[in-house]
From TrEMBL:
Binding site for (6S)-NADPHX: N59, N60, G61, G62, D63, G140, T141, G142, L143, K144, R145, K146, Y151, D169
NCBIfam families in the record: yjeF_nterm
Protein origin, superkingdom: Bacteria
Entry-linked HAMAP family: NADHX_epimerase
Record InterPro entries: YjeF_N_dom, YjeF_N_dom_sf, YJEFN_prot_NAXE-like
Function: Catalyzes the epimerization of the S- and R-forms of NAD(P)HX, a damaged form of NAD(P)H that is a result of enzymatic or heat-dependent hydration. This is a prerequisite for the S-specific NAD(P)H-hydrate dehydratase to allow the repair of both epimers of NAD(P)HX.
Phylogenetic placement of the source organism: Bacteria, Bacillati, Bacillota, Clostridia, Eubacteriales
Alphabetical UniProt keywords: Isomerase, Metal-binding, NAD, NADP, Nucleotide-binding, Potassium
Top EC category: isomerase
EC number of this enzyme: 5.1.99.6
Signal sequence extent: none
Binding site for K(+): N60, D136, S172
Presence of the UniProt keyword Isomerase in the record: yes
Name by which UniProt lists this protein: NAD(P)H-hydrate epimerase
Amino acid sequence: MKYVDSKKMREIDSYCINQLGISGIILMENAAIKIFNEVDEKLKKMSNSNIVIISGVGNNGGDGLALSRHLHLHNYNVEVFIVGNLNKASNDFKENFQIIKNINKLDDNKIGLNFINENADLKQLQTLNYADVIIDGMFGTGLKRKITGVYESLILEVNKSAAYTIAIDIPSGINSDNGDVMGVAIKADETITLQLPKVGFLKEDISEFCGNIKVVDIGIPKKVIEML
């Protein structure tokens, strides 16, 4: 199986978007559906299903928002914590965020939306104590800087939880190109990675952070992967 670094994955995504017309929002929706299918199988085996999704404001967080919608539509109890500056959010994140707000207007705020900024009191994360599943959508494959501040605190809180933790694409805090821990990182029980495994997964002992790695197809043509 082909392993890719973050640069190569960006090139593949860019080709699909700019040359084939497969928009980023379509790829995000495909990812959310595939992740939902994996999470749904896990939840069916659990006696309780209180789900917390922690989303950054980039495309990894957008995947988390789209996933929260599918979970809600299948009658799961979902709380979403958004961490970061919404003014700096990616376009695909913003589109999914607006959809969630529209659904909540229609359906009595059934998808819990919570916001965490740099000055947040992490006592609001007491919900983590009652979570059966935590889904990590803070940072994706583009992370290259050390984790600090509220992100560091949040990751440490997640790692204290007894909930089953699933990372979207790669655990937040792991450098996808070399597997290094950027200060702190989510210790996931399972990582659902999108389309192709990442080079960082080859690092020795990466399972401490990634857990079981599952690769899901999000609709990128094989010819594109072979060509690039």
